[in-house]
Amino acid sequence: MEKLINHFKFRFNQSFRIFNLNPKVSIPIVFVLGAFLFVKLPEQYYYPVIFAILIALFHGERKDIPFLKKVFIQSWRWIILLESTIMYTVLLLANINYKVEKTGLISYLLIILLTFIPPKTKPWLAMGWNFIPDYLFEWKAFLRKNGWKVILGFIIVMFSSCQPVALILAGAFVLDFISLVYEPHESKEMLEMYFRKHTLKEKIRQNTLFFNILLLPVYCSFLILNPYESLYILYYFAFMNLYLLLIIMRKYKNYNHKNKDSNYNMAVYLEYFLCSITIIPALFILVSGIKEANQNIRTYVGN
Question: Residue 249 and residue 294: Cα distance in Å, rounded?
Fold first, then answer.
């Protein structure tokens, strides 16, 4: 019993350490979980389904099974079950809009099955994404590394289309990951080769078109479910696209072949997010930033 108590103390302290060490990931996760705890969804059974999926994803990413087998030799499966059950129960009971019903109870059976499903050892959905054109190389590289996460995020965003507030909150969560698409810097040779064929204006047009094709099902779903609140989708379209433009502009304004990435951090996210949701500041930043980005590109490519 003492070993079990010490283990959960360790888990509790570990959660705070992870939060402090990696705020880029932990803050958006807490943000979305908070949204799910307070946003009212159309049907009660949406909550247990979403929370069960989150618990399953957490289990799939576990790297501590060998450790648990050494510490809890005979009862390590019970520890996994107990941890998963506690997390799922906390998410359900903390939601202010959820009332206990059969879907929530049935989901406990699915969580029990997790103890017999080994975590993944190879990346899931390791697709080539070869249908994406080469000029969208940032998206292709990002999807190859994070394909299943993108698909999960897309499902969450689709669910968010049922309500205006949920749509905006999910959009704010997605923007942080959009930033990661453009964080890596390509080599000087690749940049020169690309911008000898395309202009920055063409790159912006190609990337915004692809981005909005991805979001098209969300736009349509929201309009179908909320036909009298179409102004929300116009606002959503505006601030999502403005943020995308700001991130692309920042990448090439600050591009330096000696740096592997654009040093994206939470401060950048908050600055551009606030500018995008207020719209007007983002437009002013874009006007001057695109000029600087074009000038920086010319230092590598020439006129």
Answer: 9
| Cα distances (Å, whole numbers) of residue 244 to 71, 114, 134, 204 | 47, 38, 19, 9
Q: What is the mean pLDDT of each run of 10 residues along the chain (303 residues)?
A: 77 68 62 72 81 80 79 83 88 85 88 76 59 90 82 81 85 85 91 91 95 94 90 94 95 90 84 93 93 92 74
DSSP letter for each residue of 51-63: HHHHHHHHHHT--
Helix runs in the chain, H state only: 2-21, 23-38, 46-60, 65-71, 76-94, 102-114, 137-160, 164-181, 188-197, 200-225, 230-253, 266-278, 280-301
Global pTM? Answer: 0.69
Of 182, 246, 237, give the one whose Cα is nearest residue 214.
Answer: 237
